[in-house]
Amino acid sequence: MRKRATAKQVANAAGVSKWTVIRAFTEGASITDESKRKVLEAAAALNYTPNLLARSLATKSTGQIAVFVDDFANPQKLPFLETLTEQLQAVGRVAMLININHHFDHVHALLHADQRQVDAIILFGTAFRDETLTDRQLGNGTPPMFVLARDSQIEGVPAVVCDAELALREIVDHLHDKGYRRPGFMSGAPALSTALRRREYFSKFWSEKGISHIAHFAAEKYSFEAGALGIRNYLSSTSKDRIDVLMCENDILALGAMDEIRGKFGLSVPDDIAIVGFDNYELGGSSAYGLTTYEQPLREMVGVIIRMIKNEHDPETVTLPGRLVLRSST
Q1: pLDDT in tens for each of the 330 residues of the chain?
Q2: Are 55 and 6 contacting, i.e. CB atoms less than 8 angstroms apart?
Q3: Domains of the chain
Q4: At CA 93, angle to CA 69 and CA 132, rounded to 5?
Q5: Which positions fall inside the HTH lacI-type domain (predicted)?
């Protein structure tokens, strides 16, 4: 097996020091254009690439960002993960995806990430207990943490989130203007220390319009099947004064509910029950669904997280506006 070229060999070929070679491959390092040109030409001739593992020992930075995910049934996770990994790689970082489940909880994940000396941790899921942060196993050296796409109630852990208050005000105003007066809300998986607050604002803005009763039913997780089951249980037990519009906490719940309403119960959307989702999942825009929804500014949200990780933005909670997308389901 052919040995890898070393920084020392590149330095000898370029007629520079080993540290000049290191600077040539270090973002933002001080080096003249001429020296960098010599190093890159020598590196190309020797087929040299930097040993990032060895470099991390000197720089105290591995370039690895741990991403904790605990609800893979939610398909909206994929566009976020695609954007997150793309933007991390563009700035020389790489994502380490950690699956939070019954066999590998947050304490294990934090310990695992810390042992691998990740530079930061992004919490991208529904369940995170603040007491985890004070677990005696973790000590004081845990990497900085950030919450993506949900509010954070964890002291010292900032979040980057879509503005739920603005979103739900726009949604309720639209539904009220369309004449709906018997609203319902389907929430998803229960959150612990990260939340969405969509149900809270949905109720608040309907109350401001004189409608205080909001039918509420919860799904166990964010999935198509859970959305179908939630509305099935409701419609099977309610025939009088049922809701005329259903707001779902995300699009996959809404699509499951819509199929159940039309298929099992033979009702019309939106004539019998209108449907609203959240996220602007691609399938919802198809002619089969025409789902009214709210689009999160995912590229901007991920961009803020990246800047925080790079210390180019203060570590503070940031709320960004999204966009109401009107379609035939309302």
Answers
A1: 567 788 889 899 999 998 888 888 877 778 899 999 999 999 889 888 876 665 555 556 678 999 988 878 788 889 999 999 999 999 989 998 888 877 777 677 777 777 778 889 998 876 665 555 555 444 556 788 899 998 887 778 899 999 999 999 999 999 999 999 999 999 987 765 456 789 999 999 999 999 999 999 888 888 999 999 999 999 998 878 899 999 999 999 999 999 999 999 999 999 999 999 999 999 999 999 999 999 999 999 999 999 999 999 999 999 999 999 999 999
A2: no
A3: 7-59 (1.10.260.40), 64-161+298-320 (3.40.50.2300), 164-295 (3.40.50.2300)
A4: 35
A5: 5-59
